[in-house]
Amino acid sequence: MRTDVYLKREIIYSIIFIIIGMVALISFIIGFEKPMMLGIAIGFTPTGVGMLLIYHKAEKHPELSKNLKLEKEERNIYINTKAGHTAFWISYWYIFIALVFSNVIDVSMQRFIIFTLIGMPIVYFLFVAIYHRKY
């Protein structure tokens, strides 16, 4: 894929993330589902702004575009896919075991979801690092 097409597509994605974050922030301000909208706004807005800054800068600096080409290299795609597969199954079994023991363990659903949403990316990036050393 050509780098300029890839950069333009990623900039569009980042703008979509910012729009979703702003809509959630407005919904939070008017009082609709306040905790959920705050979480969506806090998650989507900085992600979109960060993506926009990175890809906008990469458009102007060709040396950064080389890094984007490396992301699409076959080895990196394989490693990321394998890490995602492993992280999915670890998360799947974690949720299954938590469901089985839900009567024994007294944890609120909100705390469980927060722990899960924090733990899943940690597991994924841990396996990305492990697989980069292995392959």
Written description of the protein model:
- With 135 residues, the chain is mainly alpha-helical.
- It folds into two domains: 1-72; 73-135.
- Helices cover 87% and strands 0% of the residues.
- It starts with a helix and ends with a helix.
- The mean pLDDT is 85.
Helix and strand content put the structural class at mainly alpha
Largest sheet: none
Q: What is the radius of gyration computed over CA atoms, rounded to a whole number of angstroms?
A: 19 Å
Q: What is the total domain count?
A: 2
Secondary-structure element order, N to C: HHHHH
Strand residue percentage? under 5%
Distance between the termini: 24 Å
Number of helical segments with 4 or more residues:
5
| Total beta-strand segments | 0
Low-confidence segments, given as residue ranges, are none
Tell me roughly what share of residues is in helical segments. over 70%
Overall residue-averaged pLDDT value: 85
Shape: flat
Give a quick rundown of the structure.
Helix content is 87%, strand content 0%. By secondary structure, the chain is mainly alpha-helical. It folds into 2 domains: 1-72; 73-135.
Task: Give the SSE layout.
Blueprint: H1 3-30, H2 34-60, H3 62-71, H4 74-100, H5 109-134
Helix pairs in contact: 1-2, 2-3, 4-5
